[in-house]
Every structure is written in structure tokens, then in C-alpha cells.
Amino acid sequence: MKQKKVPIRKCIVCHESGEKKNLIRIVKNKDGEIFLDPTYKANGRGAYVHEDKECIDKLIKTKGLDRAFKTKVDQEVYEKIKSECTANE
Q: What positions does the domain YlxR occupy (predicted)?
């Protein structure tokens, strides 16, 4: 039997590749809402980030979601993502 291929994604902050399940997915949907996607299946443009504190802090500092989604992302969205990620730890 063929072995199932493991999906690989790249962190938009540190540019390291890793298994999809080890990264968190942030999505921008058609309505412009930006949110964490714990199911990895929400419709919209996705960006992957490591869940560690360093990557999250650097994401906020460098405004990584602005680049990934090619739009201006409010600081409130970054704070919400940070609080949701630290709540999971």
C-alpha cells in the first residue's frame, strides 16, 4: 500500500516548512474577516504560522498578515490572534 503523503506548509514569519498539523491557520474570507481556523477547512485565503511565542510576536511586529493577505489588518485582529494562541498553550 502507498504511504499517505503528509501535507507540508510554510510559516509566513520564519519561512520554515513543517507539517500542516504543527502550524496554525489564519484565514481571510470573502467578507474580509480574519480569524483562526482550527479545522484547517474554512473557505478563504489561508496563511500558516508556528504557534510559538516568537513567531506570533514577530508576526505582529512585522505585520505579516498585511503582506500575506495584501490588505491592511487592524491591530485588534493581531491582538485577538495572540490572545487565542496563548490561551491554547
A: 9-82
